[in-house]
Amino acid sequence: MVTLHRGLGNKAGGWASGSKQCDSRQKDTLLADQSAFISENRIDEGEDDMPAIAMNHFTILTDQLEETVKFYRELLELEPGDRPPFKFPGAWLYSRGQAVLHVIASDDLPENRAGVIDHMAFSAIGLIDTVEKLKSRKIKYELRRVSDSNPWQLFFHDPNGAKVELDFDPSESAPV
After folding, report:
1. Residues ≥6 apart with Cβ < 8 Å to 154
2. For the whole model, what pTM was predicted?
3. What are the φ and ψ backbone dihedral angles of 158, each rounded to 5 degrees?
4. Taking the domains of the chain in order of start, what are their residue ranges?
5. Residue-wise pLDDT tens for the chain (176 aa)?
6. CATH for the stretch 58-168
């Protein structure tokens, strides 16, 4: 038996749920599925091939694990799910079957909490409800709309100082 850690999902979001004990036949099937996913999402030969085909996840370092998980559960409705048995505490948070946010708990955090990455962005729905959630929790936010053809951009910070951007369809109504 081998333990296979999966990171990519099929188009239906089917097998991105963490790790699984499987025999070598099952492992070969899962690896073939992953290979097919990668092949389906590659651009045609002769074009500018790139090894990166999609964003997989973001990782946040925190000294407030429970508060951070609660923040993302309540505001973004991300759900904790399977996580490999690492030797350090943390959580993986999922959206529609894909682990999109990894949270690593540590008491030894960098002084500059933001680091060199400015923010993480998610596609989102429910602009008015999300703004109400932020207001009710007294979380400062910035809402932008560059023009009528661009999505709404909602920026705020998590409990660790990480900047989060939520992009909403331009057809969503403006909050009051």
Report:
1. 124, 127, 130, 131, 134, 141, 142, 143, 144, 165, 166, 167, 168
2. 0.67
3. -85, 180
4. 2-40, 58-168
5. 232 333 333 333 332 333 333 344 443 444 444 445 445 555 555 555 667 777 889 999 999 999 999 999 999 999 999 999 999 999 999 999 999 999 999 988 888 777 767 799 999 999 999 999 999 999 999 999 877 678 899 999 999 989 999 999 999 998 98
6. 3.10.180.10
